[in-house]
Predict the 3D structure of the following.
Amino acid sequence: MNANGNVSAQWDEARQLGQLFMMGFDGTAVNDQIKTLITTYHVGSILLTAKNLESVPQATQLVLDLQTLAETSGHPVPLLIVIDQENGGVNSLYDETYITQFPSAMGVAATGDKRLARQIARATAEELTSCGINWVLGPVLDVLTNARNQPIGVRSFGEDVGVVSSFGVENVKGFQEGGVATCGKHFPSYGNLEFFGAPTDVPTITDSLENLSQNALVPFSHAIAAGIDAMMVGGVALSSNHLNVMHACLSEQICRDLLRTEMKFQGVIVSECLEMEALSRNIGISGGTVMAFKAGCDLLLTCRSMSAQEEAINGLTAGLENGMIERSRVQESFSRIMALKSKYTSWTKAFSPPGLDNLNRVRASNTKLSASAYDSSVTVVRDQKQYLPLNKVILPEDELLLLTPLVKPLPASAAFRQSGEVSRDQSLSPRPNYATDIMVMTGERVFRNFGRLLARSRNGRVMHASYTANGVRPQHEALLERAKAVVVITADAGRNKYQAAFAKHIAMLCRLSEDSEGSLVEKPCVVAAVSSPWDLATEKSIGTYLCSYDFTETALQALVNLLYKDQKSSSNASETTKRLRRPSQARQQWLVEHYRDDRDRSALNTLLAAAQAPSRPSSALVKSATADTFQLRDELVEEAHFVVRNSSTKELIGFCATYYQKAEKTGSIGAIVVSPGRRHQSVGHSLHDRAIRALLQKQGTSKFRLGTHLPNVFPGIPNIDAAEHKKLSQWFSRLGWKISRDTTISRLAISDLSSWEAPDGLGQSLAVTDIRYDLVHGQEFEGSVMQHVQRNAQSDVQVLYKMALSNKEGCAIIRGKRGSDGSIVASVLLYRSQSKLAPFVPHISSANTLTGGIGAAVMAAELENKVSLLQGLILLGVRQLKKQGIQSLLLDYMDQPLALPGLKNMGFAVHDSFDEIYSSPEDWKTP
């Protein structure tokens, strides 16, 4: 195929169809099955699993033989050689001599080092390309939204959407830099599965498509933006309102509408293995193949039996011949696969891989990288009584008891190879039963080397015993009596409940142990989870709790390093202690879109009405605010508003208003509103982050402000209620705002203006002899008024005055002019609930009585008698509004604390007050 995607003469229809399949085979050398697939059916992608790979030399030769077979049988381009190599316990290619063992995805995430994640992915890819492998099925992008009961386990980066997204992107970049193609899995997520019916039935996603788009799909979106090459659509059902999908990889709604159209994915879509029992039983291989291809899959996976593979090929061929599949559709998928091959394959690469020499060259650096990664990943969740390292609490001559469960060895381990158990089921095993599986190995077998390493590290005796679902037996109690300390290992106790019960029982016996004189002396007990970190994460009775995220030999060596450090080491346990991320602490990354008035106006009005809950003092800020409240539409201010929305129901979940004052180069957040039912789900965080990113894009921004004069919905952090103020201050502080109370602004009110009378003599006391006052309204006064306002006020106040001047019937301005030259030195606005300004000051427009407002006082900087002049202006304003029959009055935005006593003496009471917060753009810019 040439660069523009035209098919050359050597690509006949049969060869094109062969490129649409990825297939596996049994055996460690070329056999009749794979020979037929490559030569007769022209299959262009070969999946190699642990059953095919014994060692690096054998794997390298097998790949070379496969590529040679492809070339001699007339393949115009090399094969894609595909492998599962996720690290941790899922490695199809394992060789202690040449292949480096790295932590699982969750273990890498536990280091908190995204740079390390990229380095590990690059190192893994370089080792694979040395063997001629050019495609890895990874990274896993599933978010464990139900972390405690999901089979995907430590293969995921975790339960935090942001962590999975960022580490997933780094893996994509690292793999690609190392020379292998990438494939995200398992779309649309295996992070929250329900298991109904028989164990062989497909698991079900019960989340709605909208919930998935706001949580589980976020890492896939980030990976697409980062240029991931392919996406594997899983073999799961989806069942929720408006969504009923039997198999995701057979669904046009999932493959084409969601992944291809809505998420804009342009790469190769790979189906889950079409030989899965539930699919083949209910639909059949042939029918499933046609359905998957019509749904939008480009590459169809069948990885086991020759009969099923031939049925799949014949089914696709029949679909093409009978018109069910259009030839243009074949060209579409064929072109995507050819583009992938052109990027990662060539005959030169296929026949000249870097080989063993390159693996020997990188071995030392990769081993060092692995050790560093594992040491950084092992997590101390709790060490309440400072038992770590154990050499602090027991002597070399004391006996240490190690208790380990009966578990199957991980595929990426020497014990696994020794067991002779080699299979490919590394993707999704919904209901493993480690306690009863006939292939379960003894605890002594899997953890034997761990006990030896521990004994060698402490230079003392380690008693090692396994435990089962039978619980604590007399032999355990006898060993516990002899031991001075105990280490209990759990491996996925969430699904093997006996392990958690056993560990808690042992911990209790340690607390109740007695010395030789019969006194209670608590015996040090350490519990280490070597698979899922949530085994006993919340069990406070386990005082010392560690996590290693897998139990490969390298992971267990890192665990030994932490448990029993050399006494000469300068390190201590606290230096490696990390906080385990809990599901309740996860921050979701919501999809934030630009507000569109034509689309979102009605939904925003509904959201604002719902947010006026009387249970929260801050909710009163949006009282009677509407969608129009936030639309200034003035050339002095650039406005950009954002929403989190349910695209199906059109409901708005959250709203954020931002404004940029051009003259002052100040960016402001004018409101953040979240639906009451969606609070504490990171909606506000996502809106805030998007708003800050938008404001940071403004060139030359000098400062950020939390709150605005206009619209007057959220002037700042409300402090009328101490508890609410503390909560909001802490929230904004965590987001990066420099919280202080240097600028406090107040809103004052006179609730009954009809009975109000000015104190005797107040007018004379406030008179400033060289100032003359007048009342004006209408645009004929715009020139002189706006000159004064532009010199002395910010853009949002200028917009207020422009609105007032354009609204002659509803607004007026009191001016204070210097008698000597007639120049304006002070001004204040008057307005009524029917004025143009009222919608931007919801407290005015929402009042049940005829309400007026005084606000936006502007004073010349050079004035010396500002307080008296301000109070005089306001007094004149109150008298004017009372004369007009106004019944109640709001004095808005008073930031002159020296004026407050006089205003209270005038009859005003504090209505509410706020902290106006400013921060620098540098507070959010990263190096």
Summary: The domain at 378-585 is CATH 3.40.50 (Rossmann fold). The first strand starts at residue 21 and ends at 23. Confidence is low (pLDDT under 50) at residues 1-8, 421-443, 566-587. The chain has four domains: 18-360, 378-585, 593-743, 757-906.
